[in-house]
Design a protein that fits this description.
By secondary structure, this protein is of the alpha/beta class. The protein has two domains: 2-194, Alpha-Beta Complex (Spore Coat Polysaccharide Biosynthesis Protein SpsA, Chain A), CATH 3.90.550.10; 207-266, no CATH class. The protein is built from nine helices and ten strands. Strands 1, 2, 3, 4, 5, 6, 7, 8, 9 and 10 form a ten-stranded mixed β-sheet that branches. Strand 1 (5-12), helix 1 and strand 2 form a beta-alpha-beta unit. The longest helix has 21 residues, at 246-266. It is globular.
Length: 273
């Protein structure tokens, strides 16, 4: 079983041995640890897990996830952050889910998070489409490695912790997977819990937050980005209205959308949504 599934862990300045134990890993893993040194080696744990460790001084969660994909060689890969603690039996449940959904290239699973960070909860099997894919974080997803590699889809270096724009590398990755024709489904199977910790990118609802969100929406929604920006500003109003006026939030998002549009055109990614 463990040879058919690898956990792809994106970590920041962690001790690999402690991390393996704390995350309750039951299957092989690729750990990309961004730290103050460069190193790469492979080892086996006392209970027989094969661990590939790549340490690098480079920063950026998108870069980290891409490196993990390059090093992976199992049939199924599970994207992970270093603050995820897996439930006993998670590996078997993931493989059983893929056996039950042979047409799915990517499956989304439930991972318990604190209430203020919750963006989704799966209660029944469903197909994920372009209008709902933005709800799911990378650590909710497992994928058929062959499908990802055949699609050629990669995580963006522009978005996420350690990158120029604060977050959204996972949303953009899954959207690109859909555009490449991959099938994404969500299943009501819980595999673990995210430990509460201070965000590596969120510093409040400020100008940078809204501008970065606007850039992301330009990449995600193309010509409909402004509509989705307005929807976001209104939906999140209660969260930020004590410090930011909705009109300012929308203005900053529109500025971000303009910046994103210039980037998508220059990179050849202009969206036709």
């Amino acid at each position: 079983m463990r040879r058919n599934l690898e956990v792809l862990v994106s970590s920041l300045e962690k001790d690999p041995g402690t991390l393996i134990s704390h995350m309750n890993l039951e299957c092989d893993a690729v750990i990309v640890n961004q730290c103050d040194r460069n190193a790469s080696y492979e080892f086996r744990t006392e209970n027989g897990l094969n661990i590939k460790l790549f340490e690098s001084v480079e920063r950026g969660v998108g870069r980290s996830r891409n490196k993990a994909l390059d090093l992976a060689d199992s049939k199924i890969v599970l994207f992970a952050d270093d603050d995820i603690v897996y439930d006993k039996g998670y590996a078997e449940r993931i493989l059983e889910a893929f056996n039950s959904e042979p047409e799915a290239d990517i499956l989304m699973f439930n991972v318990n998070v604190c209430e203020e960070r919750r963006t989704y909860h799966i209660t029944k099997k469903m197909t994920v489409h372009k209008w709902s894919v933005g709800r799911y974080p990378a650590f909710a997803a497992a994928a058929r490695l062959g499908s990802i590699k055949r699609s050629g889809v990669r995580f963006s270096d522009l978005f996420g912790g350690g990158a120029k724009y604060s977050s959204g590398e996972d949303n953009l990755f899954f959207m690109d997977c859909l555009k490449a024709g991959l099938v994404i489904k969500a299943v009501p199977v819980t595999i673990g819990t995210e430990e509460p910790r201070r965000s590596t990118w969120f510093n409040g609802y400020n100008e940078k937050f809204f501008k970065d969100r606007g850039v992301l929406y330009s990449f995600l929604y193309g010509r409909l980005a402004t509509v989705w920006a307005l929807r976001f500003v209104m939906a999140k109003k209660k969260s930020y209205v004590s410090s930011v006026k909705p009109a300012d939030a929308f203005k900053w998002m529109r500025e971000g959308i303009a910046e994103g549009k210039a980037l998508t055109i220059s990179s050849g990614r202009e969206d036709n949504i």
